[in-house]
Amino acid sequence: MTGPLWYACGEDTIPAGEDWLAALERERLAQIRFTKRRTEFLLRRAVGKRAVAAVLSLGDDPATCGRIGMLNHPSGAPYVVLDGAVLDLEVSLTDRAGHAVALIRPAGSQARGPVGIDLELVEERTIGFVEDFLTAGEAAWVRARGQVAVDANLLWSAKEAALKVLKVGLRADTRSVEVRVQDSVGPDGWAALEVVQGESGATFPGWWRRDGHFVLTVVTTHPDGPPQALPGNGNLAAAEPIHSWLAEPVVRPAGPN
Ligand SMILES: CC(C)(COP(=O)(O)OP(=O)(O)OC[C@H]1O[C@@H](n2cnc3c(N)ncnc32)[C@H](O)[C@@H]1OP(=O)(O)O)[C@@H](O)C(=O)NCCC(=O)NCCS
Question: 11, 68, 123, 170: which to mutate for ligand 1, most atoms within 8 A of CB?
Answer without folding.
Answer: 170
